[in-house]
Amino acid sequence: MARATSYVGRHRTPRPLRSRLAGPGIAGAAAAGVLIAPGVAHAEHVWDRVADCESSGNWSINTGNGYYGGLQFSYSTWLGFGGGQYASYAHQASKAEQIDTAQEVLKVQGPGAWPVCSVRAGLTVSNGLAVNPWTDSTGTTGGTGTSGDLVVDGVLGPKTYSAMEKWIGRPVNGNWGTEDKKALQRKVKVYPDGIVGPITTKALQRVIGHSQTGVWGSSTTKALQTYLNRVL
């Protein structure tokens, strides 16, 4: 990623960004002299438009310039924002996994992480986080997360949260907030105060057919993932 005040080519080292990383981040394609694909406006959502600008929409691109995938992650940014859970390099991950990781970058660095292409694509924090990476609308092959194919691993992450949001009738974005918690509480028929404690956990455990301990650990999450796979 290059700062908006210092557009540099991908074959040179960008200036460090404000982030939790010590090193370069995501490249700005236009700044690097990469041909911008025409017809950006046809893309189905904002991350497609960013990818059209950054990589001509090629989610598996690796040209050897130090940036990878449709959104042109550097190795350090990809790992620093959790992409390593999916693949060693961004171009080896699915489109949905790249978008999921890009949303983590967006939360910390804002649209300026893609200084040229965010402007061209109209990327904002709001519309970038509103995209659900785990639905077929992103063009993901072998989708994950909200259509009966959660990995039952006991880990609460964006995919499980997205499936929970779908189940409780909330906007699906993988970001678990207070209103999501209240909706969950209404779903399991306890007072919706937005605090998921023992009472809410017991009620959820009852619904999903798990031991009602009031403690939400990995076994509860596994039972929830199994339940969501069955009902969604």
UniProtKB/TrEMBL annotation:
InterPro entries: Lysozyme-like_dom_sf, RPF. Gene3D superfamilies: 1.10.530.10. Residues 43-117 form the Resuscitation-promoting factor core lysozyme-like domain. Pfam families: Transglycosylas. SUPFAM superfamilies: Lysozyme-like. Keywords: Hydrolase. Transmembrane segments: none annotated. One of its GO terms (molecular function) is hydrolase activity. Belongs to the transglycosylase family. Rpf subfamily. This is Putative peptidase. It comes from Nostocoides australiense Ben110.
